[in-house]
Please model this.
Amino acid sequence: QQQVKQSPQSLIVQKGGISIINCAYENTAFDYFPWYQQFPGKGPALLIAIRPDVSEKKEGRFTISFNKSAKQFSLHIMDSQPGDSATYFCAASGTNDYKLSFGAGTTVTVRA
Amino acid sequence: NAGVTQTPKFRVLKTGQSMTLLCAQDMNHEYMYWYRQDPGMGLRLIHYSVGEGTTAKGEVPDGYNVSRLKKQNFLLGLESAAPSQTSVYFCASKEYSEQYFGPGTRLTVT
Model:
């Protein structure tokens, strides 16, 4: 049973558009919410992460929005570029967790 | 500083054969993990280790064994490979929050 539910499974966006990926969780003990980016043939790499003390975190064109009461968080990719085409995973863990719970992944394709 | 490395990169096994996947990290991390990645399933944790000499089961441990005899190495073994173990396997290590992943091993069991 996946502890973090991610949607959509895939999305296609035009260059310059906004990509939005959503994740939901049930475990209220989660307090660390990272997003990983994976290019074909490579391992995932940390893209951006947020803790529940803030509702939004921005790094360049990537923004995490966090809604603690709804137990949801999302990744927004602004001004999407073909180089952003990748699979994105959301994840969550608690303070005393050694491990991350991953979402199923979203494949983003940015068309030029 | 190579980070996390995995060997081999590709392998084809016949049903019933055994093999060991090697993960090595040069960041002196305490925690190490083995995941499998299958289409539509995300990353599923097989086994993990919180330090040298320790191992623990993850979500999908059946059919796999692990050992962490040295802090820098984490081995994943398949004693009797099955077609259901066809997957891409990733190793990761971490010290604080961020997990660092290796490049993966693509395993096919025929």
About this structure: The two ends of chain B are 36 Å apart (CA to CA). Chain B touches chain A at residues 4, 31, 33, 40-45, 48, 50, 56, 58, 90, 92, 97-99, 101-104 (CB under 8 Å). The longest strand of chain B covers residues 31-38.
